[in-house]
Amino acid sequence: MITKSKIHEVESATVRDRDGASVGKVARVFPSDEDGSAAFVSVATGLLGSHHALVPVEDATFDGTDLHVGYTKSAIKGAPSLGAGQTLSPAEANAVRKHFGLSPAGNATGDMGDPHENLDQAGAGPAGADDTEGAGTTPPA
After folding, report:
1. Cα–Cα distance between 13 and 49 in angstroms, integer?
2. Interatomic CA distance for residues 62 and 125, integer angstroms
3. Which residues make Cβ contacts (< 8 Å) with residue 118, sequence separation at least 6?
4. CA within 20 to 30 Å of 29's CA: 19, 39, 57, 92, which one?
5. Which long-range CB contacts under 8 A does 76-79 form with residues at least 24 apart?
């Protein structure tokens, strides 16, 4: 996570994909509404940085020079870019999340990807009633 206090350090950093390959430079950081930490970055890619791909960075790491994201270079280059406005709309943010295989903001899914799973009641019912039964244990042989 890139905290609110570190956002200014990430601006203009080199973005590296999950294999360590350089993808481009951070052109802009979009903070989250919840705590101000970085939620997305716009990455300048292509010839002369002419394309700006939007990338979610909730799980990214910054080593002081490079921003490391958990996506492939091709996925980043194929990501949606910011629309005509200067702000990232909720619809644009969800389109980016979908592109990278993430749940839409505010729509958490359970460990099995079931959007109907009641995460507040996990483990509260009879055995086998939820996807979390046996989580963290060794599977049967």
Report:
1. 13
2. 41
3. 130
4. 19
5. 76/15, 76/17, 76/23, 76/24, 76/43, 76/45, 77/23, 77/45, 77/46, 77/51, 77/53, 78/53, 79/53, 79/54, 79/55
Instruction: For residue 25, give the nearest of 40, 45, 7 by alpha carbon.
Output: 45
Model pTM?
Answer: 0.72
| Pairing of β 66-68 and β 61-62 | antiparallel
- Measured distance CA(110)–CA(140) in Å, rounded: 22
88/91 Cα distance (integer angstroms): 8
Backbone angles phi, psi at 96, to 5 degrees: -65, -45
17 and 61 Cβ atoms separated by less than 8 Å: no
List, for residues 43-96, the tens digit of each pLDDT value: 999 877 778 999 999 999 999 999 999 999 999 999 999 877 778 999 999 999
pLDDT above 70 as % of the chain: 73
